[in-house]
Amino acid sequence: MLSVQVSITEAPGPTTSGGALSTGTRLLRQVVSDRTIRDYPRRQGPGGPGGPLFARRPTVPASLPVSQSWTTASPRARHHDRRPRLTPPEPTLTEIPEHLLKRAQAAKAKAAGEEADTGSGDALPAAASTPAAPAAPSAPTPVADAAPAPVAPYVAAAHARRKIPWWAAGTLMLLPIWAIAYVGTLERPPEQTTGVLATGSHVFEARCASCHGATGGGGSGYALADGEVLATFPTAAAHILWVATGSDGVGLGNPYGDQARGRIVEGGMPAWGDVLTVEEVIGVVLHERARLSGSTDDADLAQAIDDAVHLGELDLQGHLDPTTVTVDEIQELLDSVADGGH
Question: Residues 201-213: pLDDT tens digits?
Answer without folding.
Answer: 999 999 999 999 9
